[in-house]
């Protein structure tokens, strides 16, 4: 969703006014400050921040991108500060994932759009997949069509019938996202941004060839994933993997598994001879550790970079290196 709405009276009106006053105060400096004419962009996740930063660096070294979520944040439960809301209101463009990923930002994004910000939600523009519609995805079998678990317990808000927001696990979709971001920036800041968006898209597509080679190094019979929540559907769809089960039901880390869910997962791991459970660096691994122990086997618990990049020493501090790192971790665990 890309939206530019007329300024209105909202709960963020005072913040918008503050941002306007700050802009007026700095106007006297603009003649001596070339960077003041550069575009200002806010990205919600570190993944989108990485891609957007690459586009801006290509087009204008003075342009800036502010990423709301810090390294290691879980997008599902992140809530913005009042200062970050003001940054969204004052930005030329807000780049968000959408599709319900940033649950704690929903109201803030809507208010920012109402107050005049351009909000680009890329998820819905890259042909998202519905939950339970991933090729080879067995996790959906554990839930009825209404999104409840087969034992009658409720799942999280991302049930079947909603689109999976984890689009970044398909690099071809994120290449398209880079082109969309560049084209959107070009509408107000010039064609250079569209050119740079295409350039970044080409870099992502080139890197995807290496990621594909790594993922396909796992024999077809071993391409079985058990994850902490249903986040790797796009990856499984792109590389021919099966999601055999999840520790937390549904597509959010906010869900709560029942004892029946966990017992069923233990049975799946034993039956499928699964060697690893893949978790999220942003979340505790206690439940996954307990499931692994319950199997009575030597099951590796392998943290992946799911909703956030890593720090500078992680080898996953950009979108491309994050995808390369995850592919390497998956292949090593399943080939062991």
Extended strand count: 9
Helical stretch tally: 10
The name CATH uses for the topology of the largest domain is Rossmann fold
- N/C terminus separation: 43 Å
Strand order of the largest sheet: 1-5-4-2-3
Helices and strands, in order, run as EHEHEHEHEHHEHEHEHEH
Task: Tell me the structural class.
Answer: alpha/beta
Cα-atom radius of gyration: 21 Å
Helical residue percent band? 40-55%
CATH architecture of the largest domain: 3-Layer(aba) Sandwich
Mean model confidence by pLDDT: 84
Return the domain count.
Answer: 2
Provide the low-confidence segments as ranges.
Answer: 4-36, 139-161
Characterization of the model:
Helix 7 links the parallel strand 6 (224-227) and strand 7 (242-246). The strands form three sheets. A five-stranded mixed β-sheet has the order 1-5-4-2-3, with helices on both faces. The protein has a two-stranded parallel ribbon with strand order 6-7. Strands 8-9 form a two-stranded parallel ribbon. Helix 1 (13-27) crosses helix 3, helix 2 packs across helix 6 and helix 6 (191-215) runs parallel beside helix 10. By secondary structure, the chain is of the alpha/beta class. The protein starts with a strand and ends with a helix. It has helices at 13-27, 46-59, 82-90, 106-114, 171-189, 191-215, 233-239, 259-272, 286-294, 319-335, and strands at 2-3, 40-43, 64-67, 93-96, 119-121, 224-227, 242-246, 276-280, 300-304. The protein has ten helices and nine strands.
């Amino acid at each position: 969703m890309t939206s530019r709405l007329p300024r209105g009276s909202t709960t963020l009106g005072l913040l918008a006014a503050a941002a306007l006053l700050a802009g007026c105060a700095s106007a006297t400096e603009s003649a001596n400050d070339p960077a003041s004419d550069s575009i200002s962009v806010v990205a919600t996740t570190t993944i989108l921040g990485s891609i957007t930063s690459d586009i801006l660096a290509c087009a204008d070294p003075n342009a800036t991108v502010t990423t709301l979520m810090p390294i290691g944040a879980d997008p599902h439960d992140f809530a913005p500060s009042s200062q970050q809301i003001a940054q969204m209101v004052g930005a030329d463009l807000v780049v968000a994932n959408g599709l319900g990923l940033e649950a704690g930002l929903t109201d803030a994004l809507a208010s920012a759009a109402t107050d005049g910000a351009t909000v680009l939600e890329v998820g819905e523009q890259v042909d998202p997949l519905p939950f339970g519609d991933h090729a080879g995805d067995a996790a959906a079998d554990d839930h009825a069509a209404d999104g409840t678990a087969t034992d009658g317990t409720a799942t999280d808000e991302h049930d079947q019938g909603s689109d999976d927001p984890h689009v970044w696990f398909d690099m071809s979709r994120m290449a398209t996202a880079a082109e969309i971001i560049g084209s959107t920036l070009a509408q107000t800041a010039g064609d250079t941004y569209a050119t740079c968006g295409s350039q970044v898209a080409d870099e992502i597509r080139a890197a995807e060839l290496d990621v594909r080679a790594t993922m396909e190094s796992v024999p077809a019979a071993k391409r079985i994933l058990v994850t902490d929540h249903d986040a790797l559907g796009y990856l499984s769809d792109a590389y021919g993997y099966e999601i055999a089960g999840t520790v937390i039901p549904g597509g959010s880390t906010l869900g709560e598994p029942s004892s029946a869910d966990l017992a069923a997962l233990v049975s799946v791991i034993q039956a499928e001879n699964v060697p690893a459970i893949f978790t999220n660096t942003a979340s505790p691994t206690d439940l996954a550790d307990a499931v692994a122990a319950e199997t009575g086997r030597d099951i590796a618990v392998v943290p992946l970079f799911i909703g956030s990049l890593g720090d500078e020493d992680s080898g996953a501090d950009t979108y491309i290196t994050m995808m390369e790192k995850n592919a390497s971790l998956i292949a090593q665990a399943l080939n062991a």
